[in-house]
Structures are given as C-alpha cells and as structure tokens.
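To: structure subgroup
Subject: Chain for Friday's discussion

All,

I'm putting the inputs and outputs inline so they're searchable in the archive.
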Amino acid sequence: MTEEIIIAGFGGQGVLSMGKILAYSGIMQNQEVSWMPSYGPEMRGGTANVTVILSDSRISSPYLNEFDTAIILNQQSMDKFEKSVKVGGTLIYDPNGITKHPTRTDITIYTIPATDEASRRGNARIFNMIVLGGFLKLKPVVEIENVMKGLEKSLPKRHHGMLPENREAILLGMEIIVKK
C-alpha cells in the first residue's frame, strides 16, 4: 500500500499540521513516511501545501507530480492541484471560498463543509481535524488511535486538553463528507 497525498490551502488553515499528523500516524504504524511542506514567506494567509507519502515499502522520492489524493482548501490550490490528481484518484475539498468547482470526470470528487461545521461549533481550530476525518473515512491509511498519538505528538503540551475535541472533530468529518 502506498498513498501519495497533497494537502493545500492558506497558511493558518492547519495544512502543514494535517500533514505532520498523518506522517506521525504512519510512523506509529511502522510505515515508510515522507512529509514535505511548502509555503510562501508570508505564512498565515499565504498559500501552503504539504506532500505526504505513506507506504508499506521504501519511498524512492518525496517529489511527486501526481497524487492519489488531493485535499484542497482554497481556490488557488484548486487551480494548481486539480490537474495533479492521478486518473482514478480522489479529490476532497471544502466548498467554502471555492468559486470554480472541480470538473474532472476521471477522478472521484468529495466535498466536506468543514468551515461551516467549525463555525457552527464556534471553534475554527477544529477545521483541519474535520477535514482529516473526512479523508480517513475514504482512505483509512492510518488507524484513528495512531492519529490521536500523532496529534498528541505534534501539539504543544499546553494544547493537550483539546485532544478530546479534536477526536470529536475527526469523527464528525467522517460523518459529513459527501460524494459530489
């Protein structure tokens, strides 16, 4: 099993954190892992993306031109990465702020209203965990217990009190993802 993923959006949406949590989770499952972040100098508000590869066998290169799954969180990322999803691959996106929706017919497309759900709960910080939950429902490449361990490892100790809330957000994401 090898899953090649791109997660892309604005800095501050938790793009890099999602990738790091997936990478830690893969390590907990003894998978081979690659985590390669990319972001502009402006960070928060600028564009950011991260490539994550999880595999049962050795990863030959962290550089990819095509992905099994793209998780898209803003229009600039949609414009840039929709065409990079492999034929037969998966594209997941939050429709909030997307003005030009994906049109490909050779991939499977899902929407996840994570912005709306995080807003409804009054906590924008769970946005990325909602998205991660949707991804994990479709592609259970790591077990949720390892995701929680990865989350604990990547969060500063002062935020460990939020772990139960993050777990609920992951489970919520698994419920609300919808095929387009």
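Points worth raising on Friday:
The longest helix spans residues 15-28.
The mean pLDDT is 94.

D.
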